[in-house]
Amino acid sequence: MSNEQNSALKGMALLRALTAAEFDAIAAIVRRRELAAGGDLFREGDAGDGLYLVVSGDINVIKQGPEGEHLLAKLGAGAVLGEMSLITSDLRSATGRALAEAVVLHLPLAEFRALLNSGSTAALKITHAIAEVLARRLATMNSLVLNLGGKQSPAATTSRGMKTQDLKELHRTMQVWSF
After folding, report:
1. Burial grade of 28 (CB within 10 A; 0-12, 13-18, 19 or more)
2. pTM listed for this prediction
3. Any idea what the CATH number is for the domain that residue 152 is in?
4. Runs of H (alpha helix) within 118-151
């Protein structure tokens, strides 16, 4: 692994609690992947194959909607995506596409799960870190949904506002949202 990749991996928040030996166990299974501009890292509907860390370049996260593609996020160096696939077996809910040439590090699902099943402390610490991130996201989404729900007025039931059912659907969707 190059110094740039090693440095990027060490800067990853999900790995900060690892000892040097635990870090080495994870670094041993991480694979470098290069993407050309416009290349897909993964596609909506694909099976989750692991977590990705953006080393360089930008990755657009795109969701297909009734009117076409919608940009959900633009992620640059240091960003992590696909972490949910280390926890669940859900299909990708969005597409990750390189805006320009990009380099990512891939933590493959099969190798990570093998570490987890063997009782690897490194894998357990990463799983714990992912759980913390997801708990914060859910708490934020709960607050957002409650705030939106509290702003309901008679006019909110028209086609211009969000209906209570729309808020419930948003909340349900955000609980299972993963790339």
Report:
1. exposed
2. 0.78
3. 2.60.120.10
4. 121-150
